[in-house]
Amino acid sequence: MDLMPLLLLVAGSAAVAGVGRRTPVPGPLLLVAAGIAVSYLPGVPDYTLDPHVVLPLVLPPLLHTAALESSYLDLRANARPVALLSVGYVLFATLTVGAVAYLVVPGMPLTAALVLGAVVAPPDAVAATAIARRLGLPSRITTILQGESLVNDATAITAYKVAVAAAVGESASWAGGVGEFALASLGGIGVGLVLMVPLHWLRRALRDSALLENTLSLLIPFVAYAAAEQVGASGVLAVVVVALYLGHRSWQVDFETRLQEQAVWKMVAFILESSVFALIGLQLPVVLREIGGIGGARVAWYAVVVFGCVVAARFVWVFPATFLPRLLSARVRRREPEVTWKSAAVVGWAGMRGVVSLAIAFSVPHTVHGGGAFPARELILLLTFTTVIGTLVVQGLTLPPLIRALHLTGPDERRVTLVEAQAQNEASQAAEARLAALLEDPRNALPGPLADRLRTVMERRRNSVWERLGSVNEETGESADATYRRLSGELIDTERRVFVQLRDARRIDDEMLRTLLRRLDLEEAAAYREEE
């Protein structure tokens, strides 16, 4: 197996993503454009998107890291809108796009049209949530988009399997489709519920070894996905359920494990997200080769119609799903007092499609039962590609201006800091009371200076948040806390340089240098994590 194309893909996409962070253009869109441009350079190998790689090997870790960073409590509080989007909307889009394609494309069977509908139904929220975080959208909108992206792939994959079964000639019925959907969804959730507690117990049992715990962490999404798929259930839902539980209980594992895990999964998510968006652009030559002679104004018209239908169907679903429950239920109005047409408009426009749609499209079989060609397979592939590119370009470029034009912003930063300061104050008071109780025990006797050091650490932690609310330095514009962190960084850097000089002078060895530097790194990381 030639590893050079894979290495070039990872290195190139990471470089483009790094450049994208310094430009106003959304990173996913820049990666897709770079992929398209690179695909026409001479000597660039074909990067065929293999669904047997993307679905079981790329999708699980992406879902896992997204679920780890999600809030179980926020998702539970927004379960109704998340379910309406991730299940209701995906099924609605499948039927709507399928019906429109069946009416517009001459000779396309209804079953094949529904396959197309299922393929393009699930939005990829990576781009949308990245934009939401960058522009500071209200947390509820970000939570809904994240929650939708965690579950909608399971709905779309199940709908796709039912539609393909009908298209290839297998005996399929509405009752059978509902049964398969129930098996996939309930089975996936069930597998996740069965696995989550033992896996968490195993992680805690390995708490003496952060390396073993994080090795297990890397395996967990693949184990959950494979276990669910083995019994015919949804691997997507199994991965999400397990990751939500582990993320909610992450405070119970060792601190070193948490620090390593955050760094590892951030790196994994960055590499995979960058690579899959670059892969979308690199698929253009592959798609053109697959479709053969299909082309011309008529196919361009089909692409425009399907793209327009995908965009319109989301608005047709989002606005009624947002406001009808509020009209019919006083309980919903009490629980969701801040819902406006602006938030619904942003959610409606944040419907960019991504790599999952392309992976599903490439998995459409070439033949049906009896040996005949799968109807309109090449056209399904082409329309999926144009829809993915169209949504990324049109919606990806216009979503940030739309958010700015609607003046949608997140909670006031000062209010967030005040809540954080109050929480820290309560925790510090509890810690001070615990310290006083511990020091009364003769077994915990400490010299006065050391006991005072513990009290100083707690006081510093409590005051640091309040100091961010205080006045700023007129010369630098920094708060007192920011100045403290900057000066602390300067002192740590000075110590670090001295340690290196001592190593170079052979007064300490490299092992001692690594020990001393790690101590400084942890202290510096703690200071800057307070800022985050």
Overview of this protein structure:
- The protein is mainly α and 532 residues long.
- The protein is built from 22 helices and no strands.
- The mean pLDDT is 86.
- The chain has helices at residues 4-20, 27-39, 51-69, 72-77, 79-104, 110-120, 125-135, 139-167, 174-205, 210-230, 235-248, 255-282, 284-291, 297-328, 330-335, 341-349, 355-362, 377-406, 413-439, 448-468, 480-504, 510-531.
Radius of gyration: 26 Å
Q: H/E order of the elements?
A: HHHHHHHHHHHHHHHHHHHHHH
| pLDDT averaged residue by residue | 86
> Shape from CA axes?
globular
How much beta, percentage-wise?
Answer: under 5%
The count of strands amounts to: 0
- Low-pLDDT runs of 5+ residues are none
Q: What helical percentage do the residues reach?
A: over 70%
* Count of helix runs: 22
Distance between the termini: 42 Å
Structural class: mainly alpha
Described by strand count, sense and barrel closure, the largest sheet is: none
Q: What are the main properties of this structure?
A:
532 residues; mainly alpha; 22 helices; 78% helix; globular
Note the topology:
Blueprint: H1 4-20, H2 27-39, H3 51-69, H4 72-77, H5 79-104, H6 110-120, H7 125-135, H8 139-167, H9 174-205, H10 210-230, H11 235-248, H12 255-282, H13 284-291, H14 297-328, H15 330-335, H16 341-349, H17 355-362, H18 377-406, H19 413-439, H20 448-468, H21 480-504, H22 510-531
Helix pairs in contact: 1-2, 1-12, 2-12, 3-10, 3-11, 3-12, 3-17, 5-6, 5-8, 5-14, 6-8, 6-18, 7-8, 7-18, 8-9, 8-11, 9-10, 9-11, 10-11, 10-12, 13-18, 14-16, 14-18, 17-18, 19-20, 21-22
